Amino acid sequence: MQWHDRAIILGVKRHGETSVIAEVMTQERGRHLGMVRSGRSRTMQPVLQPGNEVEVTWRARLDEHLGEFRIEPLTLRAARLMETATAVYGVQAMGALLRLLPERDPHPHLFEALEVILDNLHNPADAGELFVRFELAVLNDLGFGLDLTECVATGVRSDLAYVSPKSGRAVSRTAGAPWADKMLLLPPFLNSEANRAADIESLNAAFRLTAFFLHRHVYEPRGVEAAAAREGFVQAALKALKAAAAQDELSV
User: Fold this and answer.
1) Do residues 219 and 226 lie in contact, with contact meaning Cβ atoms separated by under 8 Å?
2) Of 4, 129, 204, 228, which sees the most CB atoms within 10 A?
3) For residue 250, how far is the Cα from the chain centroid?
4) pTM of the model
5) How many CA atoms lie within 13 A of 248 on its CB side?
6) Domains plus CATH for the chain?
7) What pLDDT digit, counting tens, does each position of 12-50 carry?
């Protein structure tokens, strides 16, 4: 059996003296593993870095076998991704999210989203917002999607301010007012009507929102903890965004 696909490197682990097992997110076949012969060579090591985009050819005698990858580089962005804490933690955190999905389960939209985020991790505001949307997409693919389009109580689509922790659905400011202290905040940039970029306050609320539902629906039932890289990314993104805001104030 054999197939070809575009893929993004998520990680590698040593296999024998010279080979590695590469974990990739493919465009059409989801997260996939394969052995790369001579993967620890000087030629292949720079290619097999998390965040790099490659073309993979997978071969195996049977579909259920691990198989072997032949890998050709396409976009080598790993060196740039090592330049900021946001990017370093972001690559690791997204890899951990993708590992929540079944292996070889196709998610082409997540591959496309991963490409976009990897190219924007240098900008803390864009990186944070895109990462939150990536978490929401993973939740949706796991069967726990949030409905942030209309108020669960009244059906209105305007002035949405909260998210019900029970239903994962949006609640308008008026309908949610009596229970505001028990609600999760809906960040304005996730409201389709707001058309606003993320700021420190709204990004912090967004991280709390996705963390709550990931813990409730995914981590707690599986008896696992969120990857430490996620907290590293959250802190790095907020710190970088705060520094950028302070710089803007000084330049005014």
Assistant:
1) yes
2) 129
3) 33
4) 0.94
5) 7
6) 2-76 (2.40.50.140), 83-148+186-251 (no CATH)
7) 999 999 999 999 999 999 999 999 999 999 999 999 999
